[in-house]
Amino acid sequence: MVRKPLTDIIVDANIFLNVLKRETDFRTGKPLWKPSSTLLTYVSDGILRGNICFVTVLEIVHAVRVNACKSGSDETVAMRLALKAISDFGFKQIIPEPFILQNSLSFMFDLRIDPYDAVLLATALGTDMDAIISRDEKFTAKASKLIPVLSPEELLEKISFK
């Protein structure tokens, strides 16, 4: 069996949040946002076909809103900027079909994952994605039994242009 190149990816909310919040690894000080930003740029440039579940969009917008509330920033402006960033990078938004939502409930029970991750996993499987891109180590350990789940660094290594 010939494996097709890794081109169709679906991203977890934490990848966009890395960039939007310019996050660093609290243990190592490594800038998490840099490889995530490179990945988003590869989608924007057409090197990768980037997909995002609409439920993941809701998760990102919710996280940005909560952050804006805590910092005293304008929630509406923050949420609109997050939506614009997703759109500007050229990610195809996938609205889950009913069968995907039904499968996500099974994943919640069977894998003991949160609802956002369950919908992401069910969407990835139901739309034949090549991989999920996520930094969530607990989710990765559980979902990788069903589909490749890679960090941005792992993905960038796999598609290296060396």
Describe the model.
The chain is of the alpha/beta class and 162 residues long. It has one domain: 3-Layer(aba) Sandwich (Rossmann fold), CATH 3.40.50. It contains eight helices and five strands; from the N terminus they run E-H-H-E-H-H-E-H-H-E-H-E-H. The protein has a five-stranded parallel β-sheet. Helix 7 links the parallel strand 4 and strand 5. Helix 1 crosses helix 2 (33-44), helix 1 (13-20) runs parallel beside helix 3 and helix 2 crosses helix 8.
Order of helices and strands: EHHEHHEHHEHEH
Q: Low-confidence parts lasting 5 or more residues at pLDDT below 50?
A: none
Name the shape in a single word: globular
Please identify, by name, the CATH architecture.
3-Layer(aba) Sandwich
Helix count equals 8
| CATH superfamily annotation | 5'-nuclease
CATH topology: Rossmann fold
Q: How many strands?
A: 5
| Computed structural class | alpha/beta
User: Could you name the CATH class?
Assistant: Alpha Beta
Strand arrangement, major sheet: 3-2-1-4-5
* Binned strand content: 5-15%
- Helix percent band: 55-70%
| Distance between the amino and carboxyl termini | 25 Å
Domains, number: 1
Write down the Rg. 15 Å
Largest sheet: 5 strands, parallel
- Overall pLDDT level: 93
What labels describe this entry?
162 residues, alpha/beta, 5 strands, 57% helix
In short:
With 162 residues, the chain is an alpha/beta fold. The protein has eight helices and five strands. It has helices at residues 13-20, 33-44, 54-71, 75-88, 98-111, 115-126, 137-143, 152-158; strands at 8-11, 49-53, 92-94, 131-133, 149-150.
